Amino acid sequence: METNTSRNSSSAAMLRQGNNMSALIATVLLLVVLVAAQVAAAFNAAYTPSRTLTSPRTTLIGSSDLRFTTKLYSTTADSTKNTYRGAGGKKTSKHAKSNNNKSPAKKVKPTSRSVAIAALANAAAASNSCEAEMNAGSFATRQLEEDNYYKLLEPRDKAFARLLVATVQRRLGQIDGVLACCVNKLPSGKNKHLVQATLRVGAAQLLFLKKPSFAVVKETVEVLRIHHKVTYSVKSTHVPEPMIKFVNGVLRKLSRKDDDTDKMYALTLLDEKTSSRDNIAPWLLESWERDWGIETTNLICDEIMPRDERSITPHIDLTTKHSIGFSLGLDGGMDRFNRLVEELGDDSTVLSQGSIRVGVNGDVREWPEYNEGTWWVQDCAATLPGIVLTRALYDRNSGDVSNLRVVDMCAAPGGKTSQLLSAGFQHVTAIEANPRRCQRLKKNLDRLRFDKDKYDVVVKEGQKWSPTNRIDGVLVDVPCSATGTGSRRPDVLRRDSDISELLEIQEVLADHCAHILPAGGIMVYATCSLLKEESEDQVKKLVEKGLVETIPIQPSEVPGFEDAIDENGWMRVIPGVLNGDMRSADGFFAARLIKK
């Protein structure tokens, strides 16, 4: 009996111990679960992005309820992998993203769009006034050409970058007009110029380059996302996400289909809200209409502002050391001249007055005989002053100009000086007031390997220079508005209307050149302006003073430009007016005069 009682007591004790053990295990498990839950909550709180997560590959645009799909730089809500999807879909750890000191952002390869946008943004950022910003086009081109990343691009990408910058410059009025219909105010702050340039480049592609809209939006917005990973001439920083969303939203709005017109909304705005004249200062249009009439003004606008930018065939005109002989009808050096044309490729054409027109293909410094100094870049119209001055002196001296001395006023960058040196004059004096431009002049003449005993370069204002020896001719290409070069330098078409200082300088220079010439000396007055007040009117005033008279330019002297000779015997080239290859020549004026 005692034995059974002991056994029952022992069993009860063991049962109680088992129950206590089970309770302990359950308690431990419960504590483990609670701790695990707290750890998970803390982990998620630490690594969940601050911005609102949407479905994979989807980004919320602004505060609207519209969701636009973006393939790159989207956030993924994969909580098991905790990754971000970066450029090209590459996954990177959130831990690496949150610790910039230990894992700095990897630099990425710039694109044609990124270098074009950087050039435009830097040019705008360097401006200190609205007028300066509007006239920053030539600076933007220089920024592009000096960008080390641009130099590393493939030829095709270089060409596209140039096209983007040129299109924005040429169509700035229309582009900003379209953007104004969608944007009341641009974001402010240090990235405002970058955002503005990105919008302009995106709009330029949609409006004028006819690129696929999806690709335009994606690749253009991408520039803002990679901006901090690319080192430019200015410090690159992260572009805030709201700014990126803002640009993305504007470009997507422009690229959507307009139900009313059944075409892209951007094109509807382009047709209904803008015209090609928006890219040209109103005062300049009024001056052209007053000088040349409405019909000719329309021809100018059509030539420098074609409806489809893709219809423009990029080209560069070259002048060689043998071109002046070509224009004079001389045979010397023609074998080498013809061989150069062949080496430059099938898209090279010899123009009537001796220039070689070449389709743009890569860096000109890599073209045949660049290093040999055989040729230089010079628009075909810009060769006319040198040709007509040389022709007059050549004819008067029975074809021998080796004992004649001539002067090139306002000589930089050196194209006309090089023409005169190639003609065989005894000595050429090149005068340039701007020290920086003078350095460029000297550098160009060094590359062309002219005999340094044959020329002098003088850094001085032309009106303050006087010759110490007899001079037989002077070419004065005066400082001017340069409105004739608008197809290549669209910024000049938006310049300020006040050219009074230029007009004064032109008159003073013309008078001075007429005074320093001896009787019988030849003077050529030239401008690259489409304004009569800088050109024809200045020569009329000079002639009326009785110091000089006109030697009419003859059609045989300027083949291809015969129809550009006016009733005075002066040369007036207007873009879009001449036929054939000369239709696209720069606007130019030249009058040949003789000292009484």
Structural features:
single chain, 596 residues, alpha+beta, eight-stranded mixed beta sheet, four-stranded antiparallel beta sheet, 12% strand, elongated
Describe the structure.
- The protein has helices at 2-47, 94-98, 112-125, 130-134, 137-146, 148-152, 155-170, 172-180, 192-209, 213-226, 241-255, 265-273, 282-292, 294-304, 323-328, 334-344, 384-396, 415-422, 435-448, 500-516, 536-544; strands at 58-60, 67-69, 83-85, 91-93, 257-258, 263-264, 315-320, 349-350, 356-359, 375-377, 405-409, 427-432, 455-459, 473-477, 522-527, 548-550, 571-573, 588-595.
- Helix content is 45%, strand content 12%.
- The chain is of the alpha+beta class.
- The N and C termini lie far apart (157 Å).
- Strands 11, 12, 13, 14, 15, 16, 17 and 18 form an eight-stranded mixed sheet that branches. It has a four-stranded antiparallel sheet with strand order 8-9-7-10.
- Helix 9 (192-209) packs antiparallel against helix 10 (213-226), helix 13 (282-292) packs across helix 14 and helix 17 runs parallel beside helix 18 (415-422).
- It is elongated.
- The chain is built from 21 helices and 18 strands.
- The longest helix is centred in the first third of the chain and has 46 residues, at 2-47.
